[in-house]
Amino acid sequence: MLTRRALITRGGAAGAAVLFLWPKAAEAETETAGPVLASTKSIPVGGGRIVKGKYVITQPKKGVYRCFSAKCTHQGCTVASVSRGTINCPCHGSRFSASTGAVVNGPAKLPLARKKIKVTKGTISLA
């Protein structure tokens, strides 16, 4: 038969374990499932799309998708378009490779930050 003290002690230990492990499980869940950014159909081959003013997703070759920060590395403007193989910043004319994010034309000196993505069942999400 359990004493009242043993019951309280065991219950407290179980409660502490739940409080300790619960946030870790929630973190693991959010790390594996990033937000959906776009459908693959909405990204043209040889072009791209600015998403939420934060990301630029490109499809340099059929079935190959890339994602970069939409923040220009020159002065932080948001890039405005993707055309002719480049991601274009409207503020000072910087252009970046739609395939690698590397600077094609300055004044920017650093490439766009690449973001990890996951392509699943016609959707593109952050990895």
From TrEMBL:
<dbReference type="InterPro" id="IPR036922">
    <property type="entry name" value="Rieske_2Fe-2S_sf"/>
</dbReference>
<feature type="signal peptide">
    <location>
        <begin position="1"/>
        <end position="28"/>
    </location>
</feature>
<feature type="domain" description="Rieske">
    <location>
        <begin position="35"/>
        <end position="126"/>
    </location>
</feature>
<dbReference type="Pfam" id="PF00355">
    <property type="entry name" value="Rieske"/>
</dbReference>
<dbReference type="InterPro" id="IPR005805">
    <property type="entry name" value="Rieske_Fe-S_prot_C"/>
</dbReference>
<keyword id="KW-0732">Signal</keyword>
<keyword id="KW-0479">Metal-binding</keyword>
<dbReference type="InterPro" id="IPR014349">
    <property type="entry name" value="Rieske_Fe-S_prot"/>
</dbReference>
<keyword id="KW-0408">Iron</keyword>
<keyword id="KW-0411">Iron-sulfur</keyword>
<keyword id="KW-1015">Disulfide bond</keyword>
<protein>
    <recommendedName>
        <fullName>Cytochrome bc1 complex Rieske iron-sulfur subunit</fullName>
    </recommendedName>
</protein>
<keyword id="KW-0001">2Fe-2S</keyword>
<dbReference type="InterPro" id="IPR006311">
    <property type="entry name" value="TAT_signal"/>
</dbReference>
<comment type="function">
    <text>Iron-sulfur subunit of the cytochrome bc1 complex, an essential component of the respiratory electron transport chain required for ATP synthesis. The bc1 complex catalyzes the oxidation of menaquinol and the reduction of cytochrome c in the respiratory chain. The bc1 complex operates through a Q-cycle mechanism that couples electron transfer to generation of the proton gradient that drives ATP synthesis.</text>
</comment>
<dbReference type="InterPro" id="IPR017941">
    <property type="entry name" value="Rieske_2Fe-2S"/>
</dbReference>
